[in-house]
Design brief:
mainly alpha
Length: 264
């Protein structure tokens, strides 16, 4: 007689992906595309920041609604939400800077405070910040709010260092790449807490990706390669689509109690 399969309660299945090499690669591609796609829509297509922000926010709300309607991780829906929230996060910072005249340093400080407060509330309400236990609507709401703040913060910090402080896109990218390498080393060599390691790396991949996107897309007069926002966005979109398809065929549900794999 065949063994009866174990029935897993839907509410105990994680709604976000495992932390693997593919996760970090697609995350970096998504944040890079968010930077270039926002610039393309607002500048190259001539929609302007306000119209672009309204359109992309409306689309993001639809994608997040689809994500919340799921009771498990569905790769294409989850990563669609990540790409869109990356674009919107960029637009939030750009609007504050260009339309409201808020200095990038002020935006960086404000988003840092918002991020810390969200983490504190999440920890107080749920008792954990682990992404391996996102199986309720409230935890998922905290998760996506944190993701939005990391993208807006990363845009502000990346632009602040590369443009205002004058380090340029390559140097800025190397700075954040080095910071992520230090975090990874501390995690593996000195057993830095897995949850802390994950969120620190997650936060710093945003300015790294933004610097990479700006370097590839911006004209050579501004220190870039001059590939343009449309070609850069399409290139990263193709890579994202390929990885998502791969993930879709290799996905296994992650249930509560899975071990932390923050920087695998």
């Amino acid at each position: 007689m065949a063994e009866r399969p174990l029935k897993i309660p839907a509410d105990d299945i994680n709604r976000v992906p495992r932390v693997t090499v593919e996760f970090w690669l697609i995350k970096l591609m998504a944040v890079t595309m968010g930077e270039t796609a926002a610039d393309y829509l607002a500048v190259n297509m001539g929609l302007g920041l306000t119209v672009t922000s309204i359109i992309m926010t409306a689309i993001l709300i639809g994608a997040i609604a689809m994500q919340f309607a799921q009771r498990r991780y569905v790769p294409w829906i989850y990563w669609l939400a990540v790409v869109l929230i990356s674009v919107v996060g960029t637009l939030v910072t750009d609007n504050l800077t260009d339309n409201f005249g808020v200095p990038l340093l002020t935006s960086a400080i404000a988003f840092s405070i918002a991020l810390i407060v969200t983490f504190i509330l999440w920890k107080a309400k749920e008792g954990t910040l682990s992404i391996h236990s996102i199986f309720t609507a409230r935890r998922e709401a905290f998760y996506w709010l944190v993701v939005l703040f990391t993208f807006a913060l990363g845009t502000a910090v990346g632009d602040l260092i590369s443009e205002v402080f004058g380090f340029g896109y390559i140097t800025t990218g190397l700075i954040f790449g080095a910071i992520i390498a230090v975090i990874a080393f501390a995690h593996y060599a000195f057993k830095l807490d897995g949850i802390l390691s994950f969120w620190l790396a997650y936060i710093f991949t945003r300015p790294l990706g933004a610097s990479l996107g700006d370097y590839l897309s911006q004209p050579s007069d501004y220190g870039g390669l001059g590939l343009g926002t449309i070609y850069t966005s399409l290139m990263f979109l193709a890579i994202i689509a390929f990885i998502v398809i791969y993930m879709s065929f290799n996905y296994e549900p992650e249930i509560e109690g899975s071990p932390e794999e923050p920087l695998r």
